[in-house]
Amino acid sequence: MLVPLYEAVHARLEVGPRTRLLGIGCGSGLALLMASARGAAVTGCDPDERRLALARQRLLPEPQWGAPVRSDGRTRLVPGGPEEVPGTEGPPFTMVTALDPGTAHGELVPALRAAAGLAERGSPVVLAGWGPPERCATGRVLRVAARLAEPRDATAAAAAAVRLSGRDDLEDLARDAGLRPDGSGRVSCPFGYPDMDSAVRGLVSTGLFDAAVAATDEDQVRKELREALHAYRRADGTIRMENVFRYLVARV
Asked: Does residue 154 have a pLDDT over 50?
């Protein structure tokens, strides 16, 4: 769903064979895979071992895997944050990305500071977040999580649904991490699913509805999601939600 965002960032910063990229919260590795296809040397880190396992399958396929850090010379995947990335192997990074719009401000600040210490002076650091709420249909659907989670964890669920969506959130994040904002952009990233079942399954798998499931039950969450998604169901049965994502280029 975020491929247009990744493509826009890679094109703007001319990612290529001379790029040494560090991806914070790399998840299942799609953005790294796309950068690698452009010739970049990529290192990804993520504290979620399940998502990192998917990244290994994409980027470092092997009959057996499981080493904490694996490398093929151009690709490294490291469990944890950037503070776990070996800083003495090879030249410093020339680009850092934090493209997961679901990561909270407080979680990113120390990670960005650690990553900045591994990058060349003046290197770009790219941050991503949701665009204006009125331009993000999926944000309205995600608010189902906040309502169903009450009173158990409404604050956390609501924050997860709208993280880094304010006008100056990305700039504030960059400054708090000691970075200098240096330009931004917006990218259309529609979320599309072939049918209602796929849409519900995909949204539940994000983890943003975990608190709602704990407060009610999964059947209730799925029912409420179906109702919220009905407005985005097209005549052919597909689901399409128009969204705008914003990215900020900052400098170390």
From this structure: no
